[in-house]
Amino acid sequence: MEYKSKLPQYILYGILAFALMIYIIKKYFVKTQKFIQLSNEEESHNNSPDSLDLPNREQSFIKDLEFGLNSSNFNIEDNIASDDNRPGLKDSQEIIEIMKLNNCTFDEARLIRQKKVFKMNGIDPETGIPLDSKFVTFDSLLGEEGNSNWDNN
């Protein structure tokens, strides 16, 4: 009766399992690293001033004026004349994108953006009144004749 040791088989299977685990872990981290790298490249490309010729975050009112972000209703020349050292308009990139996409003026682009912000926050873009059903105005408390509904009790 011959006795064959199964120890070398178990060692071989263990080494193969360990090598497979290392291979899978390496593939996972390489794939994750590539994904992170790609998403960072996309992010930097999308935020790049060169991609759309937009001002970057470190801007000033002078750069905003150069990009046409000025009107009689929203005059930033006064800010420049008073040596205002603030970084410029907050959402200038989005406004410039709207101006380019819709071929509209600065004031129209600001209105489009503001209506979009209102809608995202549950406010009627046309009236400026919240769309929440629990919202109460004084007009809703008045009856048809201008009398308060509370007086009828």
**Global shape:** elongated
**Biggest sheet record:** none
How many strands in all? 0
Report the uncertain regions: 45-52, 54-58
Structural class: mainly alpha
Q: What amount of the residues lies in strands? A: under 5%
Order of helices and strands: HHHHHHH
Q: Separation of termini?
A: 107 Å
Rg, Cα atoms, Å? 32 Å
The proportion of residues forming helix, as a percent range, comes to: 55-70%
Transmembrane segments: 7-25
Keywords: Membrane, Signal, Transmembrane, Transmembrane helix
InterPro entries: DUF2015
Family: Belongs to the UPF0357 family.
What distinguishing features does this structure have?
56% helix; mainly alpha; 153 residues
Write up what this structure looks like.
Keywords: Membrane, Signal, Transmembrane, Transmembrane helix. About 8% of the residues have low confidence. The longest helix has 40 residues. This protein has 153 residues and is mainly α. Helix 5 crosses helix 6.
Summarize the helices and strands and which ones pair or pack.
Blueprint: H1 7-46, H2 49-52, H3 61-66, H4 77-81, H5 92-102, H6 106-120, H7 138-141
Helix pairs in contact: 5-6
